[in-house]
Each structure stands twice: as C-alpha cells, then as structure tokens.
Amino acid sequence: MNRVVLKNISKSYYNQKQVLDVIDNLSLEVKEGEIVAIVGPSGTGKSTILNIIAGLVDIDNGNICVDGKIGYMFQHDLLFDWKTVYKNLFIGLEIKDKIKNTDKIKAMKLLEKYDLVDFKTSLPKELSGGMRQRVALIRTLMTNPNILLLDEPFSALDSQTRIKVSNDVYRTIKDEKLTAILVTHDIAEAITLADRIIILSKRPAKVIKEYIINFGDISPLEKRTNPLFLEYFDKIWNDIA
Amino acid sequence: MNKELKYSKMIKKQKTTVFIVQITLLILIFSLWEILGRLKLINTFLFSYPSDIVKIFNLYLQNNEIFRHIGVSVYETILGLIIGTISGLIIAVILWWNELVAKIFDPFLVVLNALPKTALAPIIIIWVGTGIDGIVCVAISISLVLTILSAYQYFKNVSNEQILMMKSFGATKIQILFKLVIPSNIGNLINLFKINIGMSWVGVIVGEFIVSKEGIGYLIMYGSQVFKMGVVMMGVLVLGVLSFLMYEIVNIIEKVWKENRK
Questions:
Q1: Cα–Cα dist A224/A220, whole Å
Q2: Where are the domains of chain B?
C-alpha cells in the first residue's frame, strides 16, 4: 500500500529577478513501512519536496496523495527555549487542543525510552545537542504520526551524536512500523538508514536514479562496516559527481 | 557541594561590595555638594545644596503638597505608559498579521519615529486640552511609535523554521501568534516596557512644562521661573527616585513571573 504518491509535480518560485524552477515533473511513491532517502546536491529543492508532502507549500502542477498523519522533523530541534522539556513535548497536541491522560503517560514512556526523564523539568538550553534532537523526535512522535518527514535532522549534530541519534530514529521507525522520507546530503546516512535511495538532479529536481538498499535486518552502525556499504557509496558518489 | 557553596558565597560577596560602593559614591557626591555649598565655593543661588533641598522638601511634606504633585505625575505616567504600550503592541500585531498594511505604513512610521515627538507636544495639548488628558496624550505619543516599530521587529524576527514547525502541526495564525510569536518575545517586550517608563516620564514632564497646575514638571518649572533652585533640585531628585522605584517594581514583577513561568 502506498502512503505517499507524488505524480508529475512541478514547482517554481518567483522573485523580482527570475523564475526559479525548483522541481520539474517529479514522481515518487513511498510504500507503507518504507524508509526512502532523497539525496541530491544542495539547493535542489529537497526540502521543498517535504514541504509539499506536508501541505505547507502549494504545487504548480501534478497530483499529491498522502494517506496518513504526518510528523515533520527539521534540521534544527526548534525547541521553545522558554518551556521545559516536558512542556515542549505537547506543542503539537496543544495545537489540536486535546491533551489526555494517555498522552501524559505516553510522554513519560518516551522520555524513559530516550533517557530523558531526569531532564523533564529542565529548560532546553541545559541539554546537549543530541538530547535536544531526541526531545524534538518525541515531540514529533507525540501526535502519533505514521509518516515521518525528516529534513536533514542530524546535520546539526556532531558526528558521534549523529550516529547515536540516527540509530534511535531508525529503531523508532522500524519498531512503530512508520513510513519515512529522509532528505539528506550525507550519502553514508542515506545508505545506513534507507530501504531505497532516490538521487535527484541539480535544479530543477528530477529523479535521476534509484537504489534499493538491502542489508537485511542490521542496525545503521553495523551497516557502516558491511562490505556492501562501500559498494553503494561508490555508486551513489559517482551519480552525484 | 563545597565548590558550589564557595561560588555562591563569592557571588554574594561581590554583590555586597557593589552595593556598598554605590551607596558610598552617592553619599560622597552629596557631601561634596553640601561642603562646597557651605564653603561658598559654588554659587548656592544657582546650585542650591542638599540640606537646603531637604528643608524645602520638609516644607512640602508638612502641607502634603509633595504627595499631590507626585500623585498627579505618577498617575499621568502610568496611564501614558500602559495605554502607549498596549496600543503600540496591538498595532504591531496588526502589522505582523498583514504584511500589506505593514508595507503601507512603513514610511509613515519611520518619519514619525525620526521626528522628535516633543515637537508635537504643544499641538497635542492644544487639540486635546490642558488638563491631565493632554499630558497623558503627550506621554502616549512619545512611547507609541517606538513600541510599534520595536515590537513589530521582534515579531518579524521569530524563526521561520519554528513557524513552519507550528504549521506542520496544523497551527492557525492565531495559534502561531499566541503560542510562539508573543511568548518567545516576552523578555523583549518587558524590556520595551522598561524603556517606555522613561519615555512616558519624558512626555509627562514636557507636558507639565507646557501647561499645568500640578505635578513634578510643574514644580520644576515653577521653581525655575521664580529662581528657587532648591525647588527645582528637589523636583529633579524626587523624579529620579520615582523613576527608579517604577523600574524596580517592574524588575520585581519580571522576576516573580520568571520563577512561575516554568
């Protein structure tokens, strides 16, 4: 079953000087439970694709079909620095005006799962970058999404934290059987997290190649030492270069 | 634990030192002023001196005159401060809400901001009246434009990514305003309010200079016209104490609120 279908979509931005064709006739299907990584040179409109799926940006042409509830994770944690960690978790639910007791239980369970219980009443500024991004992950999960949009969510982290947090996110997606679309310019990250990688061209973005990634069921960290990893890496590197 | 204790002790010690030096400085300045006055090294007719000012203050205290003047000025200042700040914020919200309106009014606001508002005071008083209303309007005119421009700038500086995040949760514009734009700027708005205390005082004193029967501005004006420098100095000192008190009250409110916010 397809969770997200984009059919022949195009999008241009206008400013006073020029028309910027960002996406040209792009089609994409994402099946339930699949993690798809979108890789491409920077400035190709990868984020625009996610914004389109999330309904935050209108398209000029084409069709979109999204079946499910969307959770969006951004490059920065975007935590509200005047709210405690715990209160930050409820921003999404607050908007819908319904915080039930079961939500509070869920929040506590997730805080436990990600080792953040001790920081429940801390302010975001007292947390490390990795912890903050985990709080942002929980905030996204609180609204029970089944489609996760990930816009370079680890790029602001240092390389060690990055691997740890991406492991967490990977486990969550697989355990909760979520569907995910990950935008990244980090080839290694795409290979270790995704089931399928889509390579985009320079602007205007078109799909130039697609790879099915098949390691079997091993963690992102284990994938890095698998011989297949280098094979995929070389191929994708050549496509982009 | 021991280290923490040491650190907090150090901070405390530093605080006391700063306070003691400040008080000493104040005493020093006033003593010097008194001594120079008594020794006739400065012209007391022009400068007056502290004990003379205290004498005049006592006089005003005994017939309760001082409280009447303080009451009127404080009332005008608070009214101007609150009306100026709140209406400024409301207009800033409207500008944030509607970019077209902001674009239309931008040059007008810039000109109004560059214009010394005290130049408008005589016009305002003629239009509104010579009583408290006119003076309050002068006070409002001084804080209003600054509030609009600053608050609008604060609102516009809210992170676009955070707004996008709110939208991804399905937030409406009202929710973005009340859950993100305003709360994220509370610190800035409190600072703006503190600046407006000073602005409002300027408006009130200028208004009272122009036309009034009572108030600290009246007292200063009256003193200078009859060349009683003691009265002028007393007015200025009372003004200093009042501004300081108002500022401190806002500081305390801010502190209590910050503690409870978490």
A1: 7
A2: 1-42, 44-261
Q: How many pairs of residues across A and B have Cβ atoms under 8 Å apart? A: 44
At position A104, the amino acid (one-letter code) is K
What is the reported pLDDT for A82? 92
The answer to whether B168 contacts chain A (CB < 8 Å) is yes
A84 touches chain B (CB under 8 A): yes
Does A72 lie at the interface with B, CB-CB under 8 angstroms?
yes
The ipTM is: 0.88
pLDDT in tens, B101-138: 999 999 999 999 999 989 999 999 999 988 899 999 99
Check A80 against B165: CB less than 8 A apart.
Answer: no
Nearest to B262 among A91, A96, A121 (CB): A121
Q: What is the distance between the alpha carbons of residues A103 and A118, in angstroms, rounded to a whole number?
A: 19
**CATH for B44-261 (3.30.300.30, 1.10.3720.10, 3.30.10.20, 1.10.274.10):** 1.10.3720.10
Cα–Cα distances in Å, from A185 out to A43, A79, A151?
Answer: 10, 24, 10
- How close B258 comes to chain A (CA, Å)? 9
Phi-psi region of A149 (alpha: psi -120 to 50; beta: other; left: phi over 0): beta
Q: Calculate what percentage of chain B has a pLDDT beyond 90.
A: 84
User: What pLDDT, in 10s, does the model give residues A9-54?
Assistant: 888 888 878 888 888 888 889 999 899 999 988 777 888 899 999 9
Minimum Cα–Cα distance from B178: chain A residue:
A95
Q: Does A5 touch chain B (CB under 8 A)?
A: no
Mean pLDDT, range B217-237, rounded to an integer: 94
CATH topology of domain A2-68+146-240: Rossmann fold (3.40.50)
Among chain B residues, CA nearest to A143: B169
Residue A239 burial by Cβ neighbours in a 10 Å radius (0-12, 13-18, 19+): middle
Assess A76–B contact: CB distance below 8 Å, yes or no. yes
Using CA coordinates, name the residue in chain A closest to B182. A82
Kindly report, residue by residue over A137-168, the tens digit of the pLDDT.
999 999 999 999 999 888 878 888 888 888 88
Question: What residue ranges of chain A are covered by domains with CATH 3.40.50.300?
Answer: 2-68+146-240
Which tens digit of pLDDT belongs to each residue from A75-96?
899 999 999 999 999 999 999 8
Buried b (16+ CB within 10 A) or exposed e, A177-190: ebbbbbbbbbbbbb
State residue B1's pLDDT score: 58
SS3 (DSSP) at A20: strand
Q: Say yes or no: B169 contacts chain A, CB-CB below 8 A.
A: yes
Q: Which residue of B has its CA nearest to A148?
A: B168
